[in-house]
Amino acid sequence: MFAQESWVFLLLAAWFILIPASGTRYQANWESLDARPLPTWYDEAKFGIFVHWGVFSVPGFESEWFWWHWKGQNPPDQKCVQYMLDNYPPGFSYPDFAPQFHAQFFDPDDWADIFEASGAKYVVLTAKHHEGFTTWPSSYSWNWNSVDTGPHRDLVGDLAEAVRNRSLHYGLYNSLYEWFNPLYLADKKNNFTTQDFVLKKLLPELYDMVLSYKPELIWSDGDWEAPDTYWNSTEFLAWLYNDSPVKDVIVTNDRWGAGCYCKHGGYYNCADKYTPGELPKHKWEKCQSVDTQSWGYRRTMRLSELMDLPSIIQDLVQTVAMGGNYLLNVGPTPDGMIPPVFEERLRGIGAWLEVNGEAIYSSKPWRIQTENATVPVWYTSNSKYSSVYAVFMTKPTVYTFHLSEPVTAESTTVTLLGNPEPLRWAPLHPRGLILLLPELPQTPAQAWILKLDGVK
User: Fold this and answer.
1) Is the CB of residue 219 less than 8 Å from the CB of residue 125?
2) Which of 74, 168, 315, 354 has its CA at a distance of 20 to 30 angstroms from the CA of residue 446?
3) Which residue range or ranges hold the Glycoside hydrolase family 29 N-terminal domain (predicted)?
4) Are 220 and 115 contained in the same domain?
5) Are 295 and 63 within 8 A, CB to CB?
């Protein structure tokens, strides 16, 4: 009896210890979970790197959905069928690709150096895509993980250490569903009235992933075939926000069940490559890929199919001006290299941000987001500097530059970021100003920023 009472006492004591210092405990329902404030680091970061890497990188054909296009959809994608007929022996199955996922040149410090040089403040690695293969030694994914086969190393853990050594935030992408997992297919056949896959595979693996790696962001996906009640999403999120080791810093997205996106969760992804038409009322993120045709590595990618640096900067600026974060994806090769063309893009972003970062990091949307005066302009603001920033990505053909929205005062100053000399300007009425531009510096990003102090 004494032993039982002691056990109960210790359990209750542990429960009270896990109550957040604020006293707030979130309930396992959307009304409560959606009321949780988003940790401030995420909105301040603005720019992150997405990494799609897994067994799908080995065939490197079409996209990371190769297995589904080859064996899942009906009818199958004939290009994928022909690719296998032309390049692999009869009977070769998708799991046979796993031993070829060597990652022999994967250097997490090299990756982290590139990510740091890009100016990104957070990194999100694929821990498990829809194929079900985990890039960490999940005991719930026996022989279908990166330690039991393929690289024979903990890719998630290795990159976590390197990224955090550079003071970058670390997040993990996790697919809720798995295309061909027998437990999932059985639940699906039962119209999701059973939860064998969720209770025996998904949730134990998710809890273990959080406890093992303590990610600061979970990028959930693969939710659309079943409601959140099937995935037990609200129960998991309540634990994540209340009792997990990352409860005070964890950020989540909105893909937690059919009908949830753009409605529930931490920040909103909505659709892939989402671009809102007006300023959203809720924090959001645009995920975009340098390779416009795929998130995973493709052997057949062409330069014309990749975003160039000016396109990326324009996308980043417009996203931030509309209050969003920008998560830019690269797909490494199966041997663990970030293709040089991707590295060139990332380092180019970093070079631009080194000059212009104060208009991006920790910024807020201004009272208007864009105007089309001399050339199209996008606005951000930053309370740290009490400044408004006008970003333009078309080089004017004249030296006079007109902005129609800012309301000036006698104390107003205007500078070009990267050039400390104040610019000459004159007010317009009832609002706006006209200024003289200096010779604009050459930049591969083809984007320049005017800093306006003392305007409304």
Assistant:
1) no
2) 168
3) 23-358
4) yes
5) yes
What average pLDDT does this structure show over 105-125? 98
Measured over the CA atoms of residue 265, residue 266, residue 272 and residue 276, the dihedral's sign is positive
**What is the DSSP code (8-state) at residue 367?**
S
Single out the residue in 359, 381, 400 at which a domain terminates.
359
Residue 407 sits in a domain of what CATH number?
2.60.40.1180
Query: What is the number of structural domains in the chain?
Result: 2
User: What percent of the chain stands above pLDDT 90?
Assistant: 93
Reported in sequence order, the residue ranges of 276-399 that DSSP labels E, i.e. its strands, are 284-289, 324-330, 370-372, 376-382, 387-392
Look up residue 151 and give its two tokens: 């690289």
Strand order in the sheet with 433-436: 400-403, 433-436, 425-427
DSSP state of 302: -
Domain that holds residue 30: 17-359
Residue 76 CB-density burial (10 A; 0-12 exposed, 13-18 middle, 19+ buried): middle
Q: What is the CATH number of the domain that holds 128?
A: 3.20.20.80
Give domain status of residue 324, yes or no.
Answer: yes
What's the rounded Cα separation, in Å, for the pair 20 and 31? 19
Residue 438's pLDDT is 94
My answer on whether 420 and 310 are in the same domain is no
Provide φ and ψ at 239, rounded to 5°.
-65, -45
How is residue 399 written in tokens? 């030296």
Q: Reading across the β-sheet that carries 376-382, which strands appear in turn?
A: 370-372, 376-382, 387-392, 448-453, 413-416
Phi and psi torsions of 226, nearest 5°: -140, 155
Place of tokens 């690709």: 97
Q: Give the separation between CA 254 and CA 11, rounded to whole angstroms.
A: 32
pTM of this prediction exceeds 0.90: yes
For residue range 267-287, list pLDDT tens digits in order. Answer: 999 999 999 999 999 999 999
Residue 15 pLDDT: 43
Q: Report the side by side order of strands in the sheet with 251-252.
A: 251-252, 217-221, 169-175, 122-128, 47-51, 324-330, 284-289
Determine contact, residues 200/76, Cβ cutoff 8 Å. no
Angle made by CA atoms 363, 368, 372, in degrees to the nearest 5: 115
**Residues 334 and 384 occupy one common structural domain:** no
Residue type, 266: G
- 271, 409: one domain: no
